[in-house]
Write a structure and sequence with these properties.
Elements: E1 9-11, E2 21-23, H1 26-35, E3 43-47, E4 53-62, E5 65-75, E6 83-87, H2 92-104, E7 107-114, H3 125-139, E8 146-147, E9 151-152, H4 153-158, E10 165-169, H5 179-182, E11 190-194, H6 202-210, E12 214-217, H7 226-240
Helix pairs in contact: 2-3, 2-7
Amino acid sequence: MRANFRLQRLFVAAPLAAGARIEADREQFNYLANVLRMEEGREVLLFNGRDGEWRARLTFPTRKRIELLSEEQTRPQPPLPDLHYLFAPLKVGRLDYLVQKAVEMGAGLLQPVMTQHVQGKLGSLDRLRANVVEAAEQCGILAVPEVREPLRLDAVLEAWPQDRRIIFCDEGAESNNPLPILETIAEPALALLVGPEGGFSEEERARLHSLPFVTAIPLGPRILRADTAAVAALAVLQASRGDWR
């Protein structure tokens, strides 16, 4: 069932059920009352990543408070997408974009990976999670992806489960077309690894190529920025192996 984009969507942390009353936080109050100028009785959609999507009605117990009265479930809760996204942090503005696009493109888990040539600083995980929520609100997504603590690439590879194949975007690949390579993969569980703006080091590339659970793919004849490569690779994976089929 597709999202209803005629109503404003809000993420809340509280449990959702028929008759639940949820108080809007300060930012939500300002947005609903002062930016959108919503009045008593207006409807919004609520989701929390666990209980599906619910239609709720605004009430104003006082001039400085909004309560959201949950009335009816409009969509059931879907499972998280099974695609894991591993990425080297970028500079702040581009990192925000990358996280939002990964959510839009169907990543179910976001894992920051620190590589040898990483140039960006991760900063606060709260900012990354806020970008995840914002993308979910805007795009009708109900299953909110998990954002994990950053790990060194070596640590990720050492603990990696053998039944989930890592697809890594190899800027040194000799071919241009990723599709024939992706068609040979048997494992249903996949993860995508995109490197930093400076690319993977030769040592990292050699290790990735040596591992039996890693497959390298090219992304065409042009050099792509890391955030562009992420969107391109996610699109290729979803079209060839994911939920676009």
